[in-house]
Amino acid sequence: MSYDDGWAAINLETPPRVPRTEYSLEGHWGVLGAVTGIEVNAESRPRVKARARRELHRRWDFDFFWSTLTSSGELEAKRTSMGHAVYQEGGTDFNANIHCPFRDPEEALALDPWEVYGPRDRAELTRRFEEHYRGTREACPDGVNMTGIYITFVSGLIAIFGWDMLLLAAGTDPERFGRLALRYASWMQQYFDALGDAGPTDMVGYGFDPERIRSILRRDLAPCRGGHVDITLKDVETVQGDTERVRRWVEIAKEAAHEALA
């Protein structure tokens, strides 16, 4: 596994080996058992499943781990269930409960996401994003990790309306559907704002290590070459209220930025 190879792929560079990622393989226990030699299935204990996943990552050299925090559960107040065919081993994901809470396109077009789903606590959302990202890094420390928002523009509207009602509403009145989409975008913006507030969790530490700080900054600034960079110090645990550490942190950030962007 390689963090560097994963970042290279994201930046359209060519590392020495072709980086690897998988998006749903880890739930196919027969594959994990065959690859790792670990006896594991859908009923196995969580620690056994985690050990099998880590061993799969090691043997098949995963470099990027896709993961998002928010999904259709954020829309539970009013959303469609489109059901689900069997994909996971043992058919544990099968869902025959198909229903749409919108009686017709007119009702769908009138949806006000702010009224139905309400505002979110920005600080709490930020905490959840940071906690999720920290968890993915702890589970998969040797590759590129992420957090994020699944129910963005199109995915969110599909989750709310389902494909049938979504297409009916869009075709019934495209102009009103456009206004509906903008209302959803306005509501969803609070998630992006909270994610933008999230701190650099991999930087946080309880000691002041200039070389570690420099290494992380160089790594994270590399993809920004040719663009505008705004570096915000949120690493309060490391500086511990020491003004000299703040001064040194700023110096290191300037040096790293100059090296990366020159």
Question: What features would you describe in this structure?
Answer:
- The protein folds into three domains: about 5-60, no CATH class; about 70-195, no CATH class; about 210-260, no CATH class.
- The chain has a two-stranded antiparallel ribbon.
- It is globular.
- Helix content is about 55%, strand content about 5%.
- It has eleven helices and two strands; from the N terminus they run αααββαααααααα.
- The mean pLDDT is about 90.
- The protein is mostly helical and about 260 residues long.
Roughly what fraction of the amino acids lie in strands? Answer: under 5%
Biggest sheet, in brief? Answer: 2 strands, antiparallel
Q: What is the terminal separation in angstroms? A: 30 Å
| Annotation field: number of helices | 11
Order of helices and strands: HHHEEHHHHHHHH
Low-pLDDT segments: none
Average pLDDT, rounded to a whole number, is: 88
Radius of gyration: 22 Å
Give the strand order of the largest sheet, numbering strands 1, 2, ... along the chain. 1-2
- Secondary-structure content class: mainly alpha
Q: How many separate domains make up the residues?
A: 3
Count of DSSP strands: 2
Helix content: 40-55%
Shape: globular
Summarize the structure.
With 262 residues, the chain is mainly α.
Notable traits:
262 residues, 3 domains, two-stranded antiparallel ribbon
How are the SSEs placed, and which strands pair?
Blueprint: H1 3-10, H2 29-36, H3 46-60, E1 81-84, E2 95-99, H4 105-109, H5 113-117, H6 122-139, H7 153-172, H8 174-197, H9 210-221, H10 236-239, H11 243-261
Antiparallel strand pairs: 1-2
